[in-house]
Amino acid sequence: MEPNVAKPLTVRCQCGNVSFPTPTAKPITLFYCHCTECQKQTSSAFGTSAIYTADGLFPLAPDLAAKLKVWKRQHPEKPRTMDCYFCSECGSRMFHRIVDADGTPRATVSIKGGCIEGLEWTPAMHIFMRSAVIKVPGEWGEQYEGLPPWMDMDNPKK
């Protein structure tokens, strides 16, 4: 009998053209992001980001890369970019990865929560509440006006 080992979840776009396993069975953390960029990206009140290690997803397998389009978004204030990956058929945003000014990609990837089948939605934290367009009850999890104080986006662990 096999031990009960958690298996990666399936990430799938709206049309089913893009499908791949998460790098690990559970994300490192889960955010509900209320920043204005996530509001635009989702056409909604907030975005959901499940943060995983990039190992196991990057480098992208050639068959997966062939099904994706990439848009590079420049940070409005910092010398870094974000590679945003979309299904080439239906346009679903699948994941994004920050790339530092020197061209080094970050060690994590943000997979869009709505594309992950079977994702546990709690615990999670709400970030960039200063831009929230809806009231979020306190019992829905930790809330931060910006990023959590422990998260230093300028000095990440590679």
Structural class, from helix and strand content?
mainly beta
N-to-C span: 38 Å
Radius of gyration: 16 Å
Lateral arrangement of strands in the main beta sheet? 5-6-7-8-4-3-10-11
Order of helices and strands: EEEHEHEEEEEEE
The backbone outline, from C-alpha atoms, is globular
Low-confidence runs (pLDDT<50, min 5 residues)? Answer: none
Q: Can you give a write-up of this model?
A:
- 7% of the residues lie in helices and 32% in strands.
- A hairpin with an 8-residue loop joins strand 7 (93-99) and strand 8.
- With 158 residues, it is mainly beta.
- It contains 2 helices and 11 strands, in the order βββαβαβββββββ.
- The chain has an 8-stranded mixed beta sheet with strand order 5-6-7-8-4-3-10-11.
Summarize this structure as a short list of keywords or feature phrases.
single chain, 158 residues, mainly beta, eight-stranded mixed sheet, three-stranded antiparallel sheet, 32% strand
Compact summary:
The chain has helices spanning 36-42, 62-65; strands at residues 10-12, 19-21, 29-33, 47-53, 68-74, 81-87, 93-99, 108-112, 116-117, 125-127, 142-143. It has 158 residues and is mainly β. An 8-stranded mixed β-sheet has the order 5-6-7-8-4-3-10-11. Strands 2-1-9 form a 3-stranded antiparallel β-sheet, with no helix packed on it.
List the helices and strands and how they pair.
Layout: E1 10-12, E2 19-21, E3 29-33, H1 36-42, E4 47-53, H2 62-65, E5 68-74, E6 81-87, E7 93-99, E8 108-112, E9 116-117, E10 125-127, E11 142-143
Parallel strand pairs: 3-10, 10-11
Antiparallel strand pairs: 1-2, 1-9, 3-4, 4-8, 5-6, 6-7, 7-8
